[in-house]
Amino acid sequence: MSVKESQSTKVSATSYNILGDHFIVCTDIGFRVHEVKSCKLKVNCTQIEGGLSLCQSYNNTNIFFFVGTGRNPALPSTKLCLWDDSRKEIAAEVEFAKPILDLKVLGEWIVIVDA
């Protein structure tokens, strides 16, 4: 067991997918996706240093949009990242001038609220 795994994980936010059948938990090391009915773990991403403040899934695919907490300089709260969970990497990112306060992915629409 690594030092990272032995430390307690802190939750920073939760959200539901567009269909309401899964929920996403943002943590200080990444995010998890669970089924609502069973709480079964579907996705466990634990390699995002500094953690996440917001995360939304894209149409029940392996694509997720997230915003970092800012504790990792590479993932400030002004950057929207597109995570490809099949490749376990950031596939794209967009930097905004102000911190991102909220994020909603609604079908083909991505809604960002900034400060």
Tell me what the structure shows:
- β5 (52-57) and β6 form a beta hairpin.
- This protein is mostly beta strands and 115 residues long.
- The strands form three sheets. A four-stranded antiparallel sheet has the order 1-2-3-4, with no helix packed on it. Strands 5-6-7-8 form a four-stranded antiparallel sheet, with no helix packed on it.
- It is built from one helix and ten strands, in the order αββββββββββ.
- The longest helix has 4 residues, at 3-6.
- It has one helix spanning 3-6; strands at residues 11-16, 22-27, 31-35, 41-45, 52-57, 63-68, 79-84, 89-95, 100-106, 109-114.
- Helices cover 3% and strands 52% of the residues.
Walk me through the topology.
Blueprint: H1 3-6, E1 11-16, E2 22-27, E3 31-35, E4 41-45, E5 52-57, E6 63-68, E7 79-84, E8 89-95, E9 100-106, E10 109-114
Antiparallel strand pairs: 1-2, 2-3, 3-4, 5-6, 6-7, 7-8, 9-10
